[in-house]
Design brief:
Layout (H helix, E strand, L loop, with lengths): L1 H21 L8 H22 L3 H16 L5 H8 L8 H10 L4 H19 L9 H22 L6 H10 L3 H4 L2
Helix pairs in contact: 1-4, 1-8, 3-5, 4-8, 5-6, 6-7, 6-8, 7-8
Amino acid sequence: MKRLRVLLGLVTWVCLPLSAAWAGPICMDRSCLAAESLAHIKESKRIRQLLMDGQYGEVEKSFAALQQQYELGRVDAGEVDFRYGLFDSARLEQGVLKWVERYPASYAANTAAGAFFLQRGLDARGGKVMSETSAMQVGAMDAYFKTARGYLDKALSKARKPVAARTAWTSSGVTSEFLNF
């Protein structure tokens, strides 16, 4: 049962952000889908570059505006989740941590850090079934998940509609069995 829950969580973690791209306007030749996907790719690259360049204020502004648009009903949850999915690269760690350091009360920074460490935990575990996963891999996964929990718990109290923080928890397959609570 635990394996199934982890598998379903991983599938959701990968597929939910992709569903945001399909939620756009309907067009017969998929040209609008391609344009929207290209826009998402460009925005993800821009945010990653801002993080790596130390432009944390710009990243904060972008995600604060996204959250405000979501709370006003102008952006759907899929779009918000899609944007937080960009924190999937190990090379973003320094930027994410410095963003949280600079903006410790930020919903966006804490959610991004939580999503980042959840992904690190999943990467540390690897793709094999649990019975083929070493104790060292499981230990590393648990350590990353506990770090993620701290950031996501903090994020949940920082927004009126903390959809991205909640989705990070539920879609990652992280359950109370992993976090002992």
